[in-house]
Amino acid sequence: MPYRNAGESTQLKLAVLSVHSCPLGKLGGKDTGGMNVYVRELAGVLGRQGHTVDIFTHRHENQHPEIIELASNARLIHIKSGNGESVDKQTLYPYLADFVCNLDNFRKADGSSYDLIYSHYWLSGLVGKLLQSWWRVPHMTMFHTLGIVKNSLGIGEEESDLRIETERLLLNSSDSIVASTARERKIMCSEYGACGENIAIIPCGVNLELFKPVDKTSARKQLGIEGKVILFVGRIETIKGLDRLVEAISLLNIPDLKLYIVGGDGYSRDEINRLKALAEKIGVDKKVNFLEPVPQEQLPDYYSAADVFVLPSYHESFGMVALEALACGTPVIATGVGDLDTIIQPGVSGYIVPDNSAEHLAGALSLAFERHGFGTREVIRATVSGFSWERIARETLRECRKLGVLK
Q1: Tens digits of residue pLDDT in 92-108
Q2: Of 62, 405, 402, which Cα lies nearest the Cα of 198?
């Protein structure tokens, strides 16, 4: 497709699509997580650098106004589609054509034009593909999770053929694709038949200004936490392997041991009840604590108050919460998911376990509490110093230059 020439500009005009999930959504819920943070943080950095970024998302009731200024030159724009009510991502597909038309009507009324479309998740990718043909600009896409991978795990809801075939279409038609890990890029090529030449590996990032060590004593006093503290932060769903972590607690003979699980929403009620029943059955219910999701601004206190952060997931596309914990100087025990097996330095910043069995998790936790051989908080934080959002922005702009939309 011939694109209009936008390559003379040194400043990018970027349309970012996050259709199914608002970047300001409450983290830890059913459809909110790392992708929300990724979109918001990247837009903020690019906007402060002088680029123009408009993020388009589905309007969810009247929780937020139509337009929100996220940062200098970065706007979040809520687009109405269908009946304008909040809808689950599983039922959003029939509204996508309506979303596309309303988005383009907004663009015309606003007098905006864009050099590049950057879509996130397969639903946004479909919108991006349609807008690409209308606007005659390149389309870059990032999936964050892949349907084939989720189905291969056999955990949770089965992903539809519609999703998988749409991902295949987008992987073989988008101008540029961003994978967060080499593992994800390999799956795109082997399982979807994508051409590896246009797949860039750009990792996820962490806000190093926000996530930094807080005095542990002060953090614990603020939160009312004491004892030997294990922390998990994120969505509460089966794929996170939290039942394995609860079982691991029962194998540990450590006085004053506490597990704090931060996250979840109304959709998580069944899973939370299942985990509570399991904890009671195996006699660790007094040690397992469930906390409501908290704003990101408060998370450094939780990470800093913990002795160790655990991510027992069956799958993570990257593992951004682990980056946050490490940036706060807290060691991490995790399965080898996402890119964590290349980030965590065994014995220095944590441990990678072979799988999320209760025995392996308990063994790593025993080591973490029995020895004091981890690096200092400053040393642990230094292991993720290369994952700033400024770096992610630089690598994203590098891909934009390859597409000829930026000098």
Answers
A1: 888 899 999 999 999 99
A2: 402
